[in-house]
Amino acid sequence: MQKNKVHKMETGKFSLRKIIDNNLFFLKLIHKASPWFLSSSVVITAVEACVEFVSDTFMLRFALNGINVGRPFRTIAAVMLIWMAVRIAVAGVVSHYRQRLYPVRLTDVKQKLHTMVFQKAAEVELECYENPKYYDTFVKAMGECSGRAEEVSNALLNVLRQGISFLANFALIIFIDPVLLLFAFIPLLVIPLQSRANRLGYQKEMEMREEKRRKDYSRRTFYLSEYAKEMRLFNMPELMLKRFQESGGRIIDIIKKYGLSLAALNYLTMECTEMLAALSVTIYAVWRTLGAGTMGYGDCIVVVNSIDVIAHTFTDSAGMLLKFQENAFYIENLRTFLDYEPTVKGGVSELPSGGDIVLENVSFRYDGAAEDSLKQLNMRFGEKEKVAVVGHNGAGKTTLVKLLLRLYDAQGTITYGNTDIRKFPLGKYRDIFSVVMQDFHIFALSVADNVMLRRCRPGEEERVREALKQSGLLEKVRTFPEEIHTFLTREFDEKGMQLSGGEQQKLAISHVYSGQNRFVILDEPSSALDPIAEYEMYESMMKACENCGMIFISHRLSSAVMADRIYMMDGGMVIEEGTHAGLMDQNGKYAEMFRKQAQNYAEVAE
Predict the structure, then answer these.
(1) Sheet holding 411-416, edge to edge
(2) Residue 215: inside a domain
(3) Is 118 part of any domain?
(4) pLDDT band at 436 (very low <50, low <70, confident <90, very high)
C-alpha cells in the first residue's frame, strides 16, 4: 500500500562546517526578510565596540600618561571634553536605533519569517500534522522561528563586538609591551575545561527540556479553559499536580547530576583566568611601573584591563561556538521543514464544468499502521446526487472524506468529471467543496468571518445573515451586541460571545449556506443536535443543495432515509449499497443497525 513518508530530521553532533552553514543559511533568511536589519546592526555594534574601547581604555591611558609626563591639564581636559561630546552624540544615535529602529526592524523580520513558515505549513499535507514525529520537530521549529532570529543575529553581533574589542586590545598590548601577550595566552590552557563545562551545560539543558515541557503541560491544564470541566468534575487536579511535582523532582535530579562537575569546572576556569592571567599581569605591570620605571601609570592600568579582555575572549570562544551549535540544531529543524516537498501536489489541468466523483479500487493505509484503513473502494458520487455514507465509528468514513478532499493521496484512482483529481490545481479542486467536519473549530473572529471562513467583505452581510437563518442561528446572533460583527470566544475580547455545542455546530453548518458549491460534504455535522433539530437541519440542507452534490457521513441512520443512495461501510470496505428501501429489504447490516437505532429513539421518546 502507498504510504506517505514524513521527512525525518537527523539529529546528533554537527561538524563545524554544518554549524557555519546552518547559521549562514539563517542569516541569509534574515537579510532577505529585511536587508537593512543586519547591516545596520553590524554598523551600530561596531561603533559601540570602538567607542567602548576608546572610552574605557584609550582615553584612560591618555589621561594618566599625560599626567605622568607632565602634559598640561588644559590639553588633557580639552581632549576629554571633545571625546565626551562625541560619545554623547554617538550614544544618542545608538539609543534611537536600539529603542526605535531595532525593535521595528526585528519585528518586521520575525513577521516575514513567520509568514514564510506559515505559507509552507499551509502547503504540507495533513499527514504531517497527524504524525507525532512531525509535531515534535517541525512544529516546534516553527515556534522557535522568531526567537531564533534574534538569537542568531545576537550571536553574530557578539562575535563582532568581542572581535573588535580583542583586536583593539591586542594591538594596544603589542604597542605597550609584546611580552604581555604571554599572560594573555594563559587562558588557552583552560579552553578544554571550558569546552567540557559548556558541553555538560548543554547536555543538562537538553535533558531538562523534555521535563520542562511535561511540567509546562501539567501547569497549563490548571488554567486553560479546554480542560476546565474535566479538572473540576474528576480527580484530574490531583493527577496533574502529581505529574507537575514529579517533573519538578526530575529537574532537580538533573541539576544535582551535573551540578558538582559544572561547579568544579567553572571554578577551575575562573581561577585560572583570574589568578594566573589577571594577577600575574598585574604583578608584572606594577613591577615595570614602580620597580623598573619603564611603564607609565596609564599603561600599567590599561594593560591589566586589556589582558582581562583578551583572556575572557579566549575562554568565551567555546561558549560562543556552543551558541552557534545550539542555533544550528534549531535551524536544521527549520531547514528540513522549508526543504520538505509535499507529496500531495496539484496539477495544471482545467477543472470541468461539472461531473461525478468516482473511486476505483481505492485503498489507503496511515503511515505506521499495520493494515489498510480503506480497502478496494469502488464508489460514485453524482454531481447532483444526495449520498449517505454510514457505518459504525472506525468504519473509515472520515478517512474517505480526507481522500475526497485530497488531504491524502491513496492507491487507486479518484476522478472528477472523468479526470484524475491529481491533475487539477489543488486549491481549485478543493474549492468545489463546502465541508463541515465533525471536529470543526470556532475561530476567535467575528460571527461573519466564521461563517465565510475568510474575511467577510463589504456587501456580504446579507449573505451571512441568510446563511445563519438557514442554519437556525440568526435569531441568536441578533441578540449579540454587534450582531454578525460580534467576536466569538473571549480569547482576545472580554465581551466575546460563547456558543453552546449545538450553536457552534449550527454556525459551522451555516458556512455551507454561504456560497454556491458543486459538492457539500457533511462529516457527522449533527452530533451535538437532538434528533428533531438534526432532521430539520438535513431537510433544510436538502433544499439548499438541490443543484449540487451532497455527501453526508453519519453513524445515525435516521438522516440516511433522505438520501438518493446509501453506502454502508464496515472495516474500511463498502459492504452494502442502495436506497434506504432497498437496503431494508436486503435485511442486512444496514437494516439491523437502522432497527436498533429506531428502537432506541422509541425508548427515549417513551
Answers:
(1) 374-381, 357-364, 411-416, 419-420
(2) no
(3) yes
(4) confident
